[in-house]
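seq/struct pair 1
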Amino acid sequence: MSVNSPGYEERDEDRYVPESPKTANRTPFARDRARILHSSALRRLGAKTQILGAGSGDFVRTRLTHSLEVAQVGRELGKALGCDPDVVDAACLAHDLGHPPFGHNGERALDEVTREIGGFEGNAQTLRVVTRLEPKTVHPSTGEPLGLNLTRASLDAIVKYPWGETELPTREDGTAVRKFNVYEDDRAVFDWLREDAPARRPSFEAQVMDLADDIAYSVHDVEDSVVHNGVSLRVLRDLERAKGVAAQALEWYGWTDEDALLDALDRLRAWGWWAEDFDGSRASLAALKDMTSQLIGRMCNATIAATRQVHGEGPLTRFRAELVVPQETLAEIVLLKAIAVHFLMAPREASPAYAKQRRVLKELVMALAERGPDALEPQFAADYRAASDDAARLRVAVDQVASLTDKSAYDWHHRFVISPRRPRG
C-alpha cells in the first residue's frame, strides 16, 4: 500500500513516464492538482462559455468559475467518503479542460466537422489535453509530448466514460450513449491508465467528480437563470408550467418519471430556504445564495449517508466501492437542470447567434486544416507537420480550435475566414 494516501496502492501513484519527485513535502496526487491548477488550459476556461457566453454579464459563471465550484464540492464530498482529496480535486479542476469555445454548442459543431475521423467529444478532448496537448512534460528520450504526465489514479478520476467512440454502450431503447473518453490515437495511454480496471466502470473518484459536476451546474445554472434572466421560481407553482419543466427533462436528459420531478419540486418548495421571489436586492441575492448552499449540502449529505450505509466506514477508493445516489436526490438534480433548460437554455437553441457560433467553428477548422502550419500556434504547427495524413491534420486543426476562448474563436475566424474573402483593391 502507498505510504502517502490510505486506500491507494503504489501503482495508483505511477506516471505514464516515471519521474523523480522534486520535493519531499508533497504527495504525487498533490503534484497532480498543482499541475492542473497552473495549466494554460485551465486559465483559458476563464473566457469560455458555461451556460451564458463569457462577457454576457459580470455575475454569470464561466467554465473556469464552474470548474472551481465543482472542485470545492468534489473535494469535500470525496474527503467525507475517504478518497484522497487531491485526486478528486484534480479531476474536478480538469473535467472541462477539453471543452471548446461556446460550450456544448461548440462541441456539437466540432463533432459534426469530424464525423469521418471519429468525432469530437469534450471528455475525450480533456484526456487528450492532459496526456498530450498541455505543454508541461516531454519524454526524456523521444521528445514525445506527455501533457501533464499525471498519476494513474488522477487520470482515471478524469475518465467518466471509460470507452472509445467505437465502443459506445446502448440505452434500454437501443440508442447509443453519445459520450466517450478516448480517441483512438490516444488509446495507448488510456489502456495504461485503465490497466486491471473493470470494463466500462468509472473509478469511485470519477463517480464523485461526475456527481459534483452535476450538483454544481444544476444548482448554479438555476442561480444564473434567476439573476441574469429575472426568472421567478414562484411561476412553478402553476402546474402546467411545472409540467413544462418536466417535459424538458425528458427531451434533454431522458428522464421519463414526471411524477418524481413534481414530487421533487414539492419537497424543495416546502423548505423555507427555497427562494421563490427575486428582485435583485442584496436581501434576495443573499436568499438565493443560501438556497444554493442548502441544495448542495442536501445533495451531498444524502449521497454520503446512502453510500456509507452500503459500504461502511473507511476509505472508499478506486474500484472498492460504488457511489450511491438516492433516487430522490437524482430527481432533484434533474429538476434543477430542467429549470435552467426551460428558462434559459432551450429558448436560445433557435437563436441566430447560436447558429452563428457553430458556423464560425466549422469554417475555422476547415480554414486552418487547409492553411496548415503558418496559421497555427507553434506547438500545433509542429503536430501538423508530423501528421501522417489528412485525417490527422484535420485533428490538429480541431485541437487548435478547441483550445481557443470564445473571443479568440471570433478573432481567428475574422482573420482566416472573413478577411481572405474580401476583395483586395
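seq/struct pair 2
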Amino acid sequence: MQDLFNYFVKRCDSLLENEVPKSITGRLKRLNRKDREALKKMLIEKGKELEASGHSHVISWLETSITLINEHAFHFNRVFFSPGNDIKNEIKTLLDHASQTVDLCIFTITDNELARRIISCHKRGVKVRIITDDEKMEDNGSEIAKLAGAGIPVKIDHSHYHMHNKFGIIDGKIAITGSFNWTYTATKHNQENLVATTKFEIVQQYDEEFNRLWNELFELKAGQ
C-alpha cells in the first residue's frame, strides 16, 4: 500500500483521473476495504501537511485521489448453481487469480482438477491453508493426502461428528460459501449452490471463524 500512497503523493501537482496506468488501477482493485480506508486516511493526513505548507490545489488533488480509490474498489456479489460447470469454473477462476492467501474450510475434496489448482496456488507462492473432515479424507478419491504431501498445511477434526463447513476466503477479500462440495458429483449431478462475495463484514466473519478453527484443530502430517 505504501507504493500506492507514494504514487498519489508524487503527483500532488498533476494527478488526472484519465492518466492513471492500469498497473495502479489494478493494485487499487486488489485492496480490501480495510486497506482502502487506511490509504484514504494516509492521503488525508498528507493533504493536511501540504495545505499547512501552503501547497496549492491540495483539495482538488485529494478529491481526485479519493475518487480514484472509490471508483476502482473491487465489489463482487454473485450466486452460482449446479449441476453444470458454473460453480467449478468460478472456483477455478478465483484460485487462478489468488495472489496472497487461500484459506479453504471444505468438508471433502475429491475433484482432482480443483486439487491441482490448489497446488498451483501453493507452488506460485500463495499461502494456502486447508481445514477438512477427518473421516471424509479417508474416502476413496480424496485429494487431501496429495495436498498435504505437496506441502500445503492441512488441519482436521477428531470427532464423531463432521467438520461440515464448505467455505473459503481468497486474498482476505472474497468469501465463497454454499452447499457445494468439491467433488465431481456436486458438479455433474447434484443441485448445489455457491455464493461469492466481497462484502467486508461477511468476509471478515468467515476469516475469523477460519482462524478460530485453525487454532483449535489438529495438523495433518504428510504421509499420515
